[in-house]
């Protein structure tokens, strides 16, 4: 089982981090410092290593102004596995794992499964269904290795079918070929998604009961993207007239969603910002827990500005959950005590703090 844990990270040219070397990473890494000092940029660099992209903005905006490329190097323990990425303004990407070039980001993501909790994570509740599909598919991808091929097959299929629909004047046989193709992989994707969701939901409920007992009554509902009484092929056949009329495929996994409800209302319309953040944390923590239970390793958590929106008691509860997962975490905050004061004391040996200022990072004496 991959129990990825970064022991070192070297960052070149990520925003205001021109050359940063951190060789003393531990399980819990807290980066504190004033606004604009570069804390989030450290999380971005780690994200780049696992996902080959930033979680905010384009690569162009991430590369230090005046530079043409960014490089991030990391070392995973145990086994001292080196991991490297170079991205250039031209769009070129070089990925290396164990000193050898790799072609797909998936290979990196498998080594370093990353979960981000930041201000954009609210999209999980308040954003469009695509944010929730991405969330769901992240989990299915990591737990069910056959998913990715089928997902790619579906993406190709729907592109072809929509192209045909746009072309107009198509014969029923031509369309039927792609309808059958889509139906086949669409059913498989949905089976994987549903199976994953059914494992995820009870874990989420258990975590949220700890994080926010007052939110008992939260419900997660999986929507597959077409009438659940119908097979996908039948749903596609039924929607063919409107597909032809409007030139795109109306039903299918591309419309799947997870509804988050409380007392029958959408959580996004009902919960306070702090409560929403707790739900988001619950969703992300549940995925990490499931990943580990499935023997697929541990998530690396990147938590940007943990204290924002949360009172100290809830901050403490989130930290307790993170500590319980035994995952490696990277947390940013403004004041040194924001996290140190609430992280479980028993984790002392695993806990380290870094002060970030003007793009420089320095380790701080253990608490
Ligand atoms: N491409 C770039 N090149 C150089 N500097 C940049 C670039 N993009 C952003 N910056 C600067 O780098 C810094 C990035 O800061 P970052 O967002 O990591 O700050 P932070 O410590 O997380 O701040 P906050 O507490 O306000 O969230 C900012 O000062 C920003 O102005």
Task: Please outline the helices and strands.
Layout: E1 5-14, E2 17-22, E3 28-32, H1 39-51, H2 59-62, E4 69-77, E5 81-88, E6 93-97, E7 100-102, H3 105-111, E8 114-117, H4 123-126, H5 129-143, H6 147-167, H7 172-211, E9 218-223, H8 232-246, E10 257-262, E11 265-266, H9 267-270, H10 273-293, E12 300-303, H11 312-324, E13 328-333, H12 337-340, E14 351-357, E15 360-364
Parallel strand pairs: 3-13, 3-14, 8-12, 12-13
Antiparallel strand pairs: 1-2, 1-4, 4-5, 5-6, 6-7, 9-10, 10-11, 14-15
Q: Which terms would index this structure?
A:
367 residues, alpha/beta, Rossmann fold, Glutathione S-transferase Yfyf (Class Pi), Chain A, domain 2, 6-stranded mixed beta sheet, 12 helices, 44% helix, globular, binds adenosine-5'-triphosphate, DNA replication and repair protein RecF, ATP-binding, RecF_2
Explain how this protein is built.
This protein has 367 residues and is of the alpha/beta class. It has two domains: 1-113 and 301-367, P-loop containing nucleotide triphosphate hydrolases (Rossmann fold); 126-296, Glutathione S-transferase Yfyf (Class Pi), Chain A, domain 2. It has helices at 39-51, 59-62, 105-111, 123-126, 129-143, 147-167, 172-211, 232-246, 267-270, 273-293, 312-324, 337-340; strands at 5-14, 17-22, 28-32, 69-77, 81-88, 93-97, 100-102, 114-117, 218-223, 257-262, 265-266, 300-303, 328-333, 351-357, 360-364. A six-stranded antiparallel beta sheet has the order 2-1-4-5-6-7. A hairpin with a 2-residue loop joins strand 6 and strand 7. It starts with a strand and ends with a strand. 41% of the residues are buried. The model has no long low-confidence stretch (mean pLDDT 94).
């Amino acid at each position: 089982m991959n129990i990825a844990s970064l022991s070192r990270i070297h960052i070149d040219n990520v925003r205001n981090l021109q050359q940063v070397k951190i060789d003393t990473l531990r399980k819990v890494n807290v980066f504190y410092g004033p606004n604009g000092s570069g804390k989030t940029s450290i999380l971005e660099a780690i994200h780049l290593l696992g996902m080959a992209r930033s979680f905010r903005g384009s690569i162009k905006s991430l590369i230090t102004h005046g530079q043409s490329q960014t490089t991030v190097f990391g070392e995973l323990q145990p086994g001292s596995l080196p991991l490297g990425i170079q991205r250039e303004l031209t769009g070129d990407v070089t990925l290396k794992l164990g000193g050898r070039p790799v072609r797909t980001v998936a290979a990196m993501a498998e080594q370093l499964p990353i979960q981000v909790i930041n201000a954009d994570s609210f999209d999980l509740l308040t954003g469009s269904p695509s944010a929730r599909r991405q969330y769901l598919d992240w989990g299915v991808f990591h737990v069910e290795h056959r998913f990715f091929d089928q997902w790619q097959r579906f993406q190709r299929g729907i592109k072809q079918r929509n192209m045909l629909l746009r072309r107009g004047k198509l014969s029923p046989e031509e369309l039927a070929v792609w309808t059958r193709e889509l139906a086949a992989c669409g059913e498989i994707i949905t089976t994987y998604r549903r199976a994953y969701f059914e494992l995820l939901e009870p874990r989420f409920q258990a975590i949220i009961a700890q994080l926010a007992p007052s939110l008992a009554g939260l419900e997660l509902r999986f929507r597959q993207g077409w009438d659940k009484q119908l097979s996908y092929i039948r749903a596609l056949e039924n929607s063919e007239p409107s597909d032809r009329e409007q030139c795109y495929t109306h039903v299918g996994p591309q419309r799947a969603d997870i509804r988050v409800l409380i007392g029958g209302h959408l959580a996004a319309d009902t919960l306070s910002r702090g409560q929403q953040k707790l739900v988001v944390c619950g969703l992300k923590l549940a995925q990490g827990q499931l990943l580990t239970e499935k023997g697929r390793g541990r998530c690396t958590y990147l938590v940007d500005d943990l204290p924002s929106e949360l009172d100290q008691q809830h901050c403490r509860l989130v930290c307790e959950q993170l500590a319980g997962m035994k995952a490696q975490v990277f947390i940013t905050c403004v004041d040194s005590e924001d996290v140190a004061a609430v992280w479980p004391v028993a984790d002392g040996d695993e806990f380290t703090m870094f002060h970030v200022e003007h793009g420089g990072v320095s380790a701080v004496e253990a608490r």
